């Protein structure tokens, strides 16, 4: 899967909500009431990422989960990154 | 629980292994073979932190878990931080 050019990245960005571009990655923060809820969400994200064989970086804090998605092998963003973001957004509507 | 002074922090640092001091926190990275193993370790850390009612920041990447422990309410390190670090080290000997 090849790295996307900027035009395609911008098109994909319009398909996902509240993710931001940070250098070669897309990033989103999810807020929760407590640590347990944050961890439960992180576990669901991990399940999806195992199934898709594509893994985000997950930062868990007390009431916050921050996800960073990129395709390391391409040193850029690919369709796979946006597919993962869309699946994750379905968890947390 | 009060923030520790530097002499006490240094004494506690000698009781834990491979943690480093970073401003007001102690930090340690744990390496794993894959994402699933990283996530399983993070879940165990979360269980301990729920039991102790003291929560680290947990960064999960493919083969890495990075823990950052501090006491936000004291804007510094307390005994509770080192107690949590010791419990976590028992998981991963």
Structural class of chain A: alpha+beta
Low-confidence stretches of chain A: none
- Oligomeric description of these chains: homodimer
Number of helical segments with 4 or more residues of chain A: 3
Kindly state the percentage of residues in helix of chain A: 40-55%
Distance between the termini of chain A: 28 Å
Count of DSSP strands of chain A: 4
Q: Main beta sheet of chain A, described?
A: 4 strands, antiparallel
What is the general shape of chain A? globular
Order of helices and strands of chain A: HEEHEEH
Strand content of chain A: 15-25%
Mean pLDDT of chain A: 95
- Report Rg of chain A: 13 Å
Q: Tell me the greatest interface.
A: A-B, 15 and 15 residues
Q: What is the topology, as strand order, of the major beta sheet of chain A?
A: 1-2-4-3
Concise account of the structure shown:
Chain A has three helices and four strands. The first copy, chain A, has 93 residues and is of the alpha+beta class.
List descriptors.
alpha+beta; globular; 93 residues; 4 strands; homodimer
Describe the structure.
Two copies of one chain form a homodimer. The relative contact order of chain A is 0.24. Chain A is α+β, with helices and mostly antiparallel strands. The first copy, chain A, contains three helices and four strands; from the N terminus they run αββαββα. In chain A, a hairpin with a 2-residue loop joins strand 3 and strand 4 (64-69). Chain A has helices at residues 6-13, 35-52, 79-91; strands at 20-22, 25-31, 57-61, 64-69. The radius of gyration of chain A is 13 Å and the shape is globular. Helices cover 42% and strands 23% of the residues of chain A. The A-B interface holds A 35-36, 39, 42-43, 46, 49-50, 55, 57-62 and B 35-36, 39, 42-43, 46, 49-50, 55, 57-62.
């Amino acid at each position: 899967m090849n790295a996307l050019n900027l035009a395609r990245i911008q098109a994909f960005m319009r398909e996902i909500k509240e993710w931001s571009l940070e250098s070669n990655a897309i990033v989103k923060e999810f807020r929760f009431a407590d640590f347990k809820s944050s961890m439960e969400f992180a576990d669901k994200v991990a399940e999806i990422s195992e199934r898709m064989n594509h893994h985000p970086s997950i930062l868990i804090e007390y009431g916050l989960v921050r996800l960073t998605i990129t395709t390391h092998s391409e040193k850029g963003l690919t369709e796979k990154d946006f597919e993962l973001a869309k699946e994750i957004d379905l968890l947390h509507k």
